[in-house]
Amino acid sequence: VELEELDLAATTPDDRVLLIDEALGRLEQKNPELARIVVLKFFGGLTNEEVAELLQVNERTIRRQWTFAKAWLLDNIRAEL
Q1: 24: exposed, middle or buried (C-beta count within 10 Å: 0-12, 13-18, 19+)?
Q2: Among 10, 17, 39, 44, which one is least packed by beta carbons within 10 Å?
Q3: Residue 11 carries which DSSP code?
Q4: Does 17 score more than 90 pLDDT?
Protein backbone atom coordinates (compact mmCIF):
# COMPACT_ATOMS: atom_id res chain seq x y z
CA VAL A 1 0.00 0.00 0.00
CA GLU A 2 1.55 3.26 -1.13
CA LEU A 3 0.33 6.81 -0.65
CA GLU A 4 1.35 7.45 -4.25
CA GLU A 5 -1.28 4.91 -5.38
CA LEU A 6 -4.13 7.22 -4.44
CA ASP A 7 -6.22 8.30 -7.38
CA LEU A 8 -5.93 12.03 -6.86
CA ALA A 9 -6.00 12.99 -10.52
CA ALA A 10 -8.96 15.31 -10.01
CA THR A 11 -7.25 17.23 -7.22
CA THR A 12 -4.70 20.02 -7.42
CA PRO A 13 -1.27 19.64 -5.79
CA ASP A 14 -2.39 21.98 -3.00
CA ASP A 15 -5.50 19.86 -2.41
CA ARG A 16 -3.36 16.71 -2.21
CA VAL A 17 -1.10 18.22 0.42
CA LEU A 18 -4.14 19.39 2.35
CA LEU A 19 -5.75 15.92 2.23
CA ILE A 20 -2.56 14.26 3.48
CA ASP A 21 -2.06 16.89 6.18
CA GLU A 22 -5.65 16.54 7.42
CA ALA A 23 -5.44 12.75 7.48
CA LEU A 24 -2.12 12.91 9.30
CA GLY A 25 -3.69 15.25 11.87
CA ARG A 26 -6.49 12.75 12.48
CA LEU A 27 -3.93 9.95 12.83
CA GLU A 28 -1.94 12.04 15.30
CA GLN A 29 -5.04 12.48 17.46
CA LYS A 30 -5.68 8.73 17.47
CA ASN A 31 -2.09 7.52 17.68
CA PRO A 32 0.74 10.07 18.00
CA GLU A 33 3.41 7.36 17.72
CA LEU A 34 2.13 6.22 14.31
CA ALA A 35 1.93 9.82 13.12
CA ARG A 36 5.54 10.38 14.18
CA ILE A 37 6.63 7.33 12.19
CA VAL A 38 4.84 8.69 9.12
CA VAL A 39 6.55 12.06 9.50
CA LEU A 40 9.97 10.49 9.97
CA LYS A 41 9.63 8.10 7.02
CA PHE A 42 7.44 9.97 4.51
CA PHE A 43 8.63 13.51 5.10
CA GLY A 44 12.00 12.86 6.75
CA GLY A 45 13.05 10.13 4.36
CA LEU A 46 14.37 7.90 7.13
CA THR A 47 14.61 4.14 6.71
CA ASN A 48 12.88 1.65 8.98
CA GLU A 49 16.23 0.96 10.62
CA GLU A 50 16.87 4.66 11.27
CA VAL A 51 13.39 5.20 12.71
CA ALA A 52 13.72 2.11 14.90
CA GLU A 53 17.03 3.34 16.25
CA LEU A 54 15.67 6.82 16.88
CA LEU A 55 12.57 5.49 18.68
CA GLN A 56 14.52 2.68 20.36
CA VAL A 57 12.27 -0.11 19.09
CA ASN A 58 12.71 -3.17 16.91
CA GLU A 59 12.83 -2.61 13.14
CA ARG A 60 10.00 -5.15 12.69
CA THR A 61 7.84 -2.99 14.93
CA ILE A 62 8.47 0.02 12.70
CA ARG A 63 7.77 -2.02 9.56
CA ARG A 64 4.45 -3.24 11.01
CA GLN A 65 3.43 0.20 12.28
CA TRP A 66 4.39 1.87 8.98
CA THR A 67 2.27 -0.62 7.04
CA PHE A 68 -0.69 -0.01 9.35
CA ALA A 69 -0.26 3.78 9.26
CA LYS A 70 -0.14 3.88 5.44
CA ALA A 71 -3.31 1.77 5.20
CA TRP A 72 -5.04 3.95 7.78
CA LEU A 73 -4.08 7.14 5.95
CA LEU A 74 -5.19 5.75 2.59
CA ASP A 75 -8.58 4.77 3.99
CA ASN A 76 -9.03 8.20 5.54
CA ILE A 77 -7.98 10.08 2.42
CA ARG A 78 -10.22 7.95 0.22
CA ALA A 79 -13.14 8.68 2.56
CA GLU A 80 -12.57 12.40 1.96
CA LEU A 81 -12.60 12.10 -1.82
Answers
A1: buried
A2: 10
A3: S
A4: no
What are 43-65's pLDDT values in tens digits? Answer: 899 999 999 999 999 999 999 99
Determine whether 14 is exposed, middle or buried from the number of CB atoms within 10 Å of its CB (0-12, 13-18, 19+). exposed
Query: Please, are residues 78 and 9 in contact by the beta-carbon 8 Å criterion?
Result: no
d(CA 60, CA 55): 12
Quick one: three-class SS letters along 22-66? Answer: HHHHHHHHHCHHHHHHHHHHHHCCCCHHHHHHHHCCCHHHHHHHH
Distance (Å, whole) CA 63 – CA 15: 28
User: What is the dihedral angle through the alpha carbons of 60, 64, 67, 70, rounded to the nearest 10 degrees?
Assistant: -110
